[in-house]
Amino acid sequence: MGRRGWAMGRQGGGTVRRRFTLLYATGFLASGCVLLALTYLMSGTLQTALAPEQAPGTGPGAGPGSASPEQQVRELSRQLAEVHAQQNHRLLAGSLLALAVMTGVSLLLGRVLADRVLRPLRLITAATRRISAENLHQRLAVAGPADEVKELADTVDGLLERLEASFLAQRRFVGNASHELRTPLATMRAALDVAVAKPQPAAQTLALAGRLRTELDRVDHLLDGFLVLARAEHGTLADREPVALDALTRAALSARAADLAAKALTVEDRIRERVWTRGSATLLSRMVENVLDNAIVHNEDGGWIRIATERADEEALLVVETGGAVLDQGRVDRLTRPFERLGADRTGPEGSSGLGLSIVSAIVGAHAGRLSLVARPEGGLRVEAALPTAAAGDRCAGRTR
Questions:
Q1: SS3 string of the chain?
Q2: What is the pLDDT of residues 1-56, one digit of tens each?
Q3: CB 371 within 8 A of CB 364
Q4: Contacts of residue 124, Cβ cutoff 8 Å, sequence gap at least 6
Q5: What angle, 0 to 180 degrees and rounded to 10, lies between the N-to-C axes of helices 356-366 and 203-234?
Q6: What is the dihedral angle through the alpha carbons of 62, 65, 69, 72, rounded to the nearest 10 degrees?
Q7: How would you write 311-361 as a 3-class SS string?
Q8: The domain at 162-234 falls in which architecture?
Q9: b/e per residue, 103-125, with b = 16+ CB within 10 A?
């Protein structure tokens, strides 16, 4: 998961914590209000029951000397009721103040409780985020009582176990396919060599051998593409090291000088030095080669290619642009899928396996980068591969090798 996924996870976790806090505080506030209302109602009922009925001739205007003992008792009861009413008002005001204070305390306590409740889930999320295709053997192994959190962790562990088995099966298939398919190809090549090496071979035999050799070369190229694609998508990058992206680009460009000259292509070189990334030098070299091959094969005679490497926002960029006909962006977006082509006009004279850009996409993804394919409004295609830059210490180590 990238930085964006990590930020979304943190934001989601904060939202759940706020919900727990608000739920706890709201429940406390509601129960406090109900308790306060019941207390006030009960005190009011008690005051009404204790309040005496005022007899005739009694009241504020009646003299104290004319009051009978019964009237004096009623007057004392009335005064006692007034005292109770004042006490109830003071109790209500004090209760409201205490409720306001406890509301703030409940928010703080709710946050603490929410953190404690969500702590196991945060640990599970962090541990799951650290597990990738390179360390699928790791497990969460959450200890504790058999509750919902442990059940969730055990479910994630079971999913990781099935993923690990699937990845291992995929890698075994790639290894077996590499051995089993290359062996018959080598046998067929040897048989062709024997047939052609016979004294005075027939012209038809030579022509047939030439066509078969061409087809075998295409099958071998296709098989190599399958294996590279499988390794980039399902394999581990155990050979990570600092790699100079500009050096790989210049080497690939120099190796294709004859192909560029054959189509009279003009190359605009914007390759900057010291553009470093970290990853598999073999796969990254294949990525650069496929991008350049795509720009050469699917270009028009006498066209142009603009190649640039640069650093921007902690990313190492490889940008290759070509001219040509105006392309549909919707169809361009599908070029990262295996065997996707834009049609016969982009297959070139030697044909295309349809794996070039899908391999590029897989290699970029395996290096935690991003690939952008844009149909230029003026015509042609712009390919941008952005990879994480290597740390300063890694770059220094790469120069000393």
A1: CCHHHHHHHHHHHHHHHHHHHHHHHHHHHHHHHHHHHHHHHHHHHHHHHHCCCCCCCCCCCCCCCCCCHHHHHHHHHHHHHHHHHHHHHHHHHHHHHHHHHHHHHHHHHHHHHHHHHHHHHHHHHHHHHHCCCCCCCCCCCCCCCCCHHHHHHHHHHHHHHHHHHHHHHHHHHHHHHHHHHHHHHHHHHHHHHHHHHCCCCCHHHHHHHHHHHHHHHHHHHHHHHHHHHHHHHHCCCCCEEEEEHHHHHHHHHHHCHHHHHHCCCEEEEEECCCCEEEEEHHHHHHHHHHHHHHHHHCCCCCCEEEEEEEEECCEEEEEEEECCCCCCHHHHHHHHCCCCCCCHHHCCCCCCCCCHHHHHHHHHHHCCCEEEEEECCCCCEEEEEEEEECCHHHHHHHHCC
A2: 344 443 434 444 457 777 777 887 788 778 777 777 777 676 655 555 555 544 44
A3: yes
A4: 140, 142, 149, 152, 153, 156
A5: 30
A6: 50
A7: EECCEEEEEEEECCCCCCHHHHHHHHCCCCCCCHHHCCCCCCCCCHHHHHH
A8: Orthogonal Bundle (1.10)
A9: eeebbeebbeebeeebebeeebb
Phi, psi angle pair for 311, to nearest 5°: -110, 135
Structure tokens that stand for 287 in this block = 């990525």
- Phi first, then psi, for residue 400 (nearest 5°) are -80, -5
Measure CA 374 to chain center: 22
380 and 319 Cβ atoms separated by less than 8 Å: no
Tokens describing residue 3: 């930085």
Selection from 128-142, 160-174, 261-275 with the highest mean pLDDT: 261-275
Each residue of 327-347: pLDDT tens digit? Answer: 989 889 888 887 777 654 444
What is the mean predicted confidence (pLDDT) over 160-178?
A: 77
Task: Give the orientation angle of helix 245-255 with respect to helix 281-297, to 10 degrees.
Answer: 50
Q: Is the dihedral of CA 164, 168, 174, 175 positive or negative?
A: positive
Instruction: Look at the alpha carbons of 231, 232, 236, 239 in this order and tell me if their dihedral is positive or negative.
Output: positive
User: What superfamily in CATH does domain 240-399 come from?
Assistant: Histidine kinase-like ATPase, C-terminal domain (3.30.565.10)
State the pTM of this model.
0.56
CA nearest to 347, candidates 397, 279, 299? 299
Dist. CA 277–CA 310, nearest whole Å: 11
